[in-house]
Amino acid sequence: MEYVHSDNGKHDAPDTPLEYQSETGRLNILGFWVFLGAEIALFATLFASYLVLVGRYADGPTPGELFEVKGVLIETFLLLTSSFTCGLAIHEMRRNSLKGLIVWLGITLLLGLGFLGFEIYEFVHYIHEGASLTTSAYWSGFFVLVGTHGAHVTMGIAWMILIIIQLVQRGLTKQTTRKVFVASLYWHFLDVVWIFIFTAVYLYGMVMHHG
Amino acid sequence: MKWDEFFVTGDPFIYAADASIVFTSIGIVFVLTYYKKWKWLWSEWLTTVDHKKIGIMYIIAAVLMLFRGGVDALLMRAQITAPGSEILKSQHYNEIFTTHGTIMIIFMAMPFLIGLINFAVPLQIGARDVAYPYLNAVSFWTFFFGAMLFNISFVIGGSPSAGWTSYVPLAGEELSPGPGQNYYLLGLQIAGIGTLLTGINFLVTILKMRAPGMSIIRMPMFTWSTLITMILIIFAFPVLTVALALMTFDRLFGSHFLTLADGGLPMLWLNLFWIWGHPEVYIVILPAFGIFSEIISTFARKTLFGYKAMVWSMVSIAGLSFIVWVHHFFTMGANAVVNSFFSITTMAIAIPTGVKIFNWLFTLYKGRIKITSAMLWSLAFIPNFTIGGVTGVMLAMAAADYQYHNTYFLVSHFHYVLISGTVFACFAGLYFWYPKMFGHRLNERIGKWSFWLFMIGFNVCFFPMYFLGLDGMPRRIYTYEWADGWFDLNVVATIGAIGMAIGFVLLIYNIYWSFRYAERETTGDPWDGRTLEWSTHTPVPFYNFAIIPEVSGLDAYSRMKRDPAQEKKKEYKPIHMPNYSGKPIFMSVAFFISGFGLVFEWWWMAILGLIGVLAMLLLRSFDYDDGYYVPVDEVERIEKSYE
């Protein structure tokens, strides 16, 4: 997504943040917002599918039996904090501090990895307790909804690693800052989705369906 | 799996298809090698990111798919003409109506329109390309390889046979075992990636890359219809993505979303499918409305009547399209309140559509109408589409729908809207923009023969089906009895289908004839066009416009022609253009390999393909190719060559 070729006389905008200065940058950032719109439609469909399958446990366990507050809270704190550190990374980028940017991105990455580790541990635990993708419609819905979010986090981590390498290679340019900014949008979006998962899956599963 | 299970065997039609595929492939390879065209093919077409070439490739692929889907249709007509005929076995018939529907909607109608959009919209808004040319190539190639994956099913592994709607439990693992249904799921999934990217690409292109002076209410109507269609794509396609994924998980990994056992919910598929599926039919009709608007206005030689009403009616159609999906299954047992709600929303769509019909009629009123092939298709659209629309309102009445449901009445209805809406628009658009694409017009005489044969054939084919439906003939049956009394009208319908086939063949012949003999186009403006695409040279230079035009109002090019003083000679500037890239096609091949592996549950192959996709994404991430500048003297040289 590197190209500009409309000659509309609105080329460079020097007074804006670096990632917005080129027309390519502006186009790509807008395009990514639109993509997030499509992602909202995707997750909304997954949530709807999950919610209509609540209560369809067949012979498998219920979420009230398996969900534990502790693990979910740790995951939540790790991911929410990573969103905050991601914001700090953008703040450092705007202050033109390459080092600060890379440090905070690195911390964001580690928090994301931590989240992922706990999530994988949680999944393995459920499977040991007899709740897997094939157990019942409910657990199919659970694993695909939460798993899709987890797969997005995994992609986000891989993406951020690539961007950090490019930052080391190239420093802060119109292109690298754009990439960082777009990745940060993605990361915050995953955070928002998690808040809905926390509410609609875990809180609802523990409180509404306890016992 | 043994080889005789891998290849579809035992049917003479399939052996004929095998032979024709092999001979066609050998023929293509021979011609390319003999004329030393491989390099040209690769460097000019397969790696292109130019929206015009991508548009043309979309259209070529769509015409091929129209042929394939049309052959399916003729085979069905052949089987169903007389009671008790045994041309096709029931399983083969089921496969053919499934692939016919899927191919015509997903791999013909959409790509044909997206091809015309690709070609015309950037030119209409005075842009040099789309916002993301590279992604545009990814869109095309994922569509193309998704379509190829779906199409090879009929010679390798067997085709899906659960209908293009693929209702569970019929489409589930138990009742449709084997690769057939997997082809449907993976083929659509891969092509769907491309469609979503097209949605994002053109939305941003239209919002951000319009020529100076072209405010949003000065956009040509085709551009408007594209903008609204892209919004529909962005919100509808993710629903299909999820629906396909859920069924894929059920079939490949044993989950229970849609199964009858262990709490699965088959109705979940129906709801998700049609939450995508209804917007989908507007995705293929709104651009058609846009094309007709351009053509009717051009050949009536008048500004489009009721511009703002046209826009608002499309906006309301788009909004309503998301809240009508239950009308596809009124008989599935929802209660009266639910059915009433969806019945009313469905009927409401007739209001904005009616507004549009009247606007087209008023555009014609007192126009100096010029009858060309493009105009004939557009004029024929109005009454034929209205018949489809009125029968749609009949179907929308939930109580009455119990009578029409699942009969040929419905089959006729949706062919009336999709053929006289979408297919007529594709043909009209092809005739209209053809000179801009290829530098010569299509022959009018052959074009008119083709039109009349196809249009009359269409009515002869589908009008009797309303009565077959009212007589109780169900859709998707592969045979019936003499006592049913459906023979006569089926014979009439088959005669009509032959008329359509001849019309199509004439269209292809017209392309050949005009390529050989038609007068070459030099003016760039063969129809006295009204919008910016006619203001540039023919054939269009790769940068579209040497100087970006300035727009002072609606019908921008008409204004320029009326007031040539505005056209001041401006200085050329260097033009920034993107480089071509082979990555999109490689990535799509990797998608194809991965999809093929998943179809046969060969995990090693699926993973290998996926690694290929990720590798291409990684390479792309490190690719800082920023395009290049066309220097001023080069621009001058190219511009001079047109004088």
Quick gist of this model?
The complex is a heterodimer of chains A (211) and B (643). With 211 residues, chain A is mainly α. Chain A is 78% helix and 0% strand.
Structure overview:
With 211 residues, chain A is an all-alpha fold. Chain A has one domain: Cytochrome c oxidase, subunit III, four-helix bundle (Four Helix Bundle (Hemerythrin (Met), subunit A), Up-down Bundle). Helices cover 78% and strands 0% of the residues of chain A. Chain B is mainly α. In chain B, 67% of the residues lie in helices and 1% in strands. In chain B, α11 packs antiparallel against α13. Chain B starts with a helix and ends with a helix. The mean pLDDT of chain B is 95. Classes of the chains: A mainly alpha (211), B mainly alpha (643). At the A-B interface, α2 and α6 of A face α6, α7, α8, α9 and β1 of B.
Give the ordered list of helices and strands of chain A. HHHHHHH
Distance between the termini of chain A: 52 Å
**Low-confidence spans of chain A: pLDDT under 50, at least 5 residues?**
1-9
Q: Based on the coordinates given, report the CATH architecture of chain A.
A: Up-down Bundle
- Percentage of residues in DSSP E strands of chain A: under 5%
Number of strands of chain B: 2
- Termini separation of chain B: 64 Å
Helical stretch tally of chain A: 7
Mean pLDDT of chain A: 92
Determine the fraction of residues in helical runs of chain B and give it as a percent range: 55-70%
Structural class computed from helices and strand pairing of chain B: mainly alpha
Unreliable stretches of chain B, pLDDT < 50, 5 or more residues? Answer: none
Q: Let me know the largest β-sheet of chain A.
A: none
As a percent range, the share of helical residues of chain A equals: over 70%
